[in-house]
Amino acid sequence: MTDLSAFPITRKWPPQHPERLQLYSLPTPNGVKVSIMLEETGLAYEPHTVRFDSQDQMSPEFLSLNPNNKIPAILDPNGPDGKPLALFESGAILVYLAEKTGQFIPRDAGARYETLQWLMFQMGGVGPMFGQLGFFHRFAGKEYEDKRPRDRYVAEAQRLLQVLDQRLEGRDWIMGRDYTIADIAILPWVRNLVGFYEAADIVGWERYGQLRRVLEKWLERPAVQRGLEIPARG
After folding, report:
1. Separation in Å, CA 131 to CA 2, 59, 86, 119, 209
2. CA 32 → CA 2, 84, 135, 188, 205, distances in Å?
3. Mean pLDDT per 10-residue run, the chain (234 residues)?
4. Contact 188, 32 (CB under 8 A)
5. Distance (Å, rounded) from C-alpha 184 to C-alpha 156?
6. What contacts 37, CB < 8 A, 6 or more positions away?
7. How many angstroms from the chain centroid is the CA of residue 65?
8. Distance (Å, rounded) from C-alpha 34 to C-alpha 142?
9. Half-sphere exposure (CA, 13 Å, Cβ side) for 30?
10. 228, exposed or middle or buried, with CB in 10 Å at 0-12, 13-18, 19+?
11. Taking the chain, what is the end-to-end CA distance rounded to the nearest angstrom?
């Protein structure tokens, strides 16, 4: 049987199936990137819920795997060279899983780098900017009398949405006909912006017809529907 006892995180979240990839996450936009990717690839995995309300992400066990105290993180017992691999940062995990399975990343070198370009676009722009808009529009930021911070992030979110809408003109997915990790990274944040953050009206969501089309198609994928609920909040 696979032995993961050398990893302190397994003391707080003991694996029932140590031979499977271990996922430590929560259904946030970054968290579901990895659960959706795992569902899409068909890799066997075991999910563990990292509860923010009990500060699980600040526990010594979780910090032993991710010192940046953010979800998601994984522990793959079948990593490179047959050795266990602990990994954090959702973008890095997507690349790792794509290369491990040979799925959702182009084999052609040029297309591969172009896919990584759009992955970085999400990590450096879409995620941080949409997250700030969520803070200033739905959460504590809406109490600020000065609306300039909110308006700054509204304008930047609109700019990013326009970039995506233009990119999707005449394309099925970000990279064209092929569904890739670029879509798996970007679309959870778009969904969160117009759903959980309730920002559809303020960003003018109706103007982005191509992006709306692709988001709707993405949400119809069975693996996406499963991945959006993993690990279950409890």
Report:
1. 38, 24, 26, 16, 22
2. 26, 22, 20, 7, 22
3. 91 97 97 98 98 94 97 98 96 98 98 98 98 95 90 98 98 98 98 98 98 98 97 70
4. yes
5. 21
6. 93, 94, 97, 98, 104, 181, 184, 227
7. 18
8. 30
9. 21
10. middle
11. 29
- Residue 81 CA to residue 86 CA, distance in Å, equals 14
Q: What is the largest CA-CA distance in the chain?
A: 59
- Which contacts qualify for 162-166: CB closer than 8 Å, 24 or more apart? 162/208, 163/121, 164/126, 164/190, 164/208, 164/210, 164/211, 165/207, 165/208, 165/209, 165/210, 165/211, 166/210
- Side chain identity, residue 228: L
